[in-house]
Amino acid sequence: MITKTSHPFTARLKLVFGVALSFVLVACAVTPTSTVAPATSASPTIAAPTLASAVAPTKSAGTAIHDIQGAGHISPLAGKTVKGVQGIIIAIRSDGFYMQDPNPDNDEATSEGILVFTITLPKVKIGDLVSVEGDVKEFYPRDIATGDLPITEIIKPTFTVVSSGNKLPDPIIIGTGGRIPPNKVIKSEKGDADQTKFNPKTDGIDFYESLESMLVQVNDAVAVGPTSRFREIPIVGDKGANATYISGRGAMVISAEDYNPERIHLDDVILPTPTVNVGDRFTKPIIGIMDYTFGNYKLQITQRPSFESSGIKPEVTVKQKENQIAVATFNVENFAANGDAQKIKDLAKIIVENLQSPDIIGIEEIQECSARIAG
Ligand SMILES: [Ca+2]
Ligand SMILES: [Ca+2]
Ligand SMILES: [Ca+2]
């Protein structure tokens, strides 16, 4: 599932005593709501090597990755042992590697990539063609009861390196020039808890599942939120051209019918993510692996992104004049009087400096005096 993003500030105007009203909302960097737990520890960092061979290895006689993945969220081979599964290693993490079939089928619905879970750092290199035997598992990052989707893995693997220095498959472009992500629907069948219907052209979670563990690319990405405390960055590609609506401040806006499946999280399992703010623009293509953890599809970057700042700053409202009254609303996000002292100072600063000391302020999310943080 893709979680909502909430705006910490809302504004509402009321005329009081028929007095002319002067009020401008303080908007600030949108903080993406994240329900995720920290990503699993990752041992970075294996950069893409210079690759020698441009010839795709010949098709193996073993089980193909796209036959393991199938066109759906659950592998038709889950629980089975597979042999001779060949793929080129496209990324390495501390507990496994991603490999991708250099001989894809003609079906966009079936992913050509898979995670081989080795538990410890595998002794392989990017560009190795490997042949893997192991058990197919649909792994749920948390518990199935959370509603998480599973990721297809080969566990208990044994593998041999067939050849090295192979050219990596071209990344699948998500966006213009490649596959355009759905931009409204996350899942069209509301009652399909088992995810039996699969519509990768129209449904967000099915679209990303069809790219699971494959090398992907996003061009002209812009950050639609700042880097989170989990080091995740929400982005959209193509400067937002395929997104439904981005606010003037650079944030994605949700509506009842649109929870923005076009938004992609960058994540740091393989390489560290940079610290960015809303509206920052990435100056070279984002390249990485389509992964899934803790309720969201994540793009695990395999190349260090570069970006330029949008220079966004919190707004400052117009000060009310003598014949005006200023009214504001402010979501203080689980404010408790005995909470974090710095937070209290920061909120006071915003009210005085950015909101210019309004005459009336409606506060949202304030706890009773004895409470700390509500659950
Ligand atoms: Ca395929
Ligand atoms: Ca899968
Ligand atoms: Ca949208």
Descriptive terms for the model:
seven-stranded mixed beta sheet; 16 strands; 375 residues; OB fold (Dihydrolipoamide Acetyltransferase, E2P); 26% strand; disordered N terminus; 3 helices; mainly beta; binds calcium ion; five-stranded mixed beta barrel
Could you report the average pLDDT, rounded to the nearest whole number? 85
CATH homology superfamily name of one domain: Nucleic acid-binding proteins
What compounds are bound to the protein? calcium ion
From the spread of the alpha carbons, the general shape counts as elongated
Number of helices: 3
What is the CATH topology classification name of one domain?
OB fold (Dihydrolipoamide Acetyltransferase, E2P)
Distance between the termini: 21 Å
Beta content: 25-35%
Question: Stretches where pLDDT falls below 50 for ≥5 residues?
Answer: 1-52
CATH architecture of one domain: Beta Barrel
Number of strands: 16
What does the main sheet amount to?
7 strands, mixed
Roughly what percent helix?
Answer: under 10%
CATH class of one domain: Mainly Beta
H/E element order: HEEEEEEHEEEEEEEEEHE
The main sheet orders its strands as 6-7-12-13-10-9-8
Structural class: mainly beta
Cα Rg: 24 Å
